[in-house]
């Protein structure tokens, strides 16, 4: 059984900025070591919303998290039509591409599950596990 993480321990994230093909700047943060694990968050939740999960995974995975477009530190698209699951999955693809990652395990919480499923539909070879 996993023990609850000590949530007072700060997580030292490495910060990246990824510009998408439609001009949105996504704030991406990474931490940990091991094979890549892409973590999709819930809608309206920023990177710290997954800290408890990151505490459990970072010893075994390089955790990759991002603020969805228009949320947290990420910029907003010019049109509200650019907030689809398909677009969030494209953002996930572009985050992985920017970091030079061909395949990653995908973890999702709340809306992150739908983003992960759309990523599998669009680009199944990029998803090592879900």
Please tell me the overall pLDDT: 93
Kindly estimate the percentage of residues that lie in beta strands according to DSSP: 15-25%
**Low-pLDDT sequence parts:** none
**Would you list the SSEs in sequence order as H and E?**
EEEHEHEHE
User: Rough shape?
Assistant: globular
Largest sheet: 6 strands, mixed
Q: Kindly provide the radius of gyration, computed on alpha-carbon positions and rounded to a whole number of angstroms.
A: 14 Å
> Considering DSSP H and I runs of 4 or more, what fraction of the residues is helical?
25-40%
First and last CA, distance? 21 Å
* Count of helical regions: 3
Write the layout of secondary structure elements.
Layout: E1 14-19, E2 25-32, E3 36-40, H1 51-57, E4 62-66, H2 85-98, E5 104-108, H3 111-122, E6 127-129
Parallel strand pairs: 3-4, 3-5, 5-6
Antiparallel strand pairs: 1-2, 2-4
Describe this protein's structure.
The chain is 25% helix and 25% strand. It has 130 residues and is an alpha/beta fold. Strands 1-2-4-3-5-6 form a six-stranded mixed sheet.
Short account of what is shown:
This protein is an alpha/beta fold and 130 residues long. The chain has 3 helices and 6 strands, in the order E-E-E-H-E-H-E-H-E.
């Amino acid at each position: 059984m996993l023990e609850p993480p000590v949530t007072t321990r700060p997580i030292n994230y490495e910060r990246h900025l990824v510009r998408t093909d439609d001009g949105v700047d996504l704030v991406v943060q990474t931490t940990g070591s091991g094979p890549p694990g892409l973590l999709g968050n819930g809608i309206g939740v920023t990177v710290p919303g997954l800290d408890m999960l990151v505490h459990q995974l970072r010893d075994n995975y390089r955790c990759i998290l991002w603020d969805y477009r228009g949320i947290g530190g990420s910029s907003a698209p010019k049109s509200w039509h650019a907030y689809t699951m398909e677009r969030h999955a494209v953002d996930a693809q572009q985050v992985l591409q920017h970091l030079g990652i061909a395949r990653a395990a995908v973890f999702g919480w709340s809306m992150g599950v739908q983003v992960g499923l759309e990523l599998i539909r669009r680009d199944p070879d990029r998803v090592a596990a879900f």
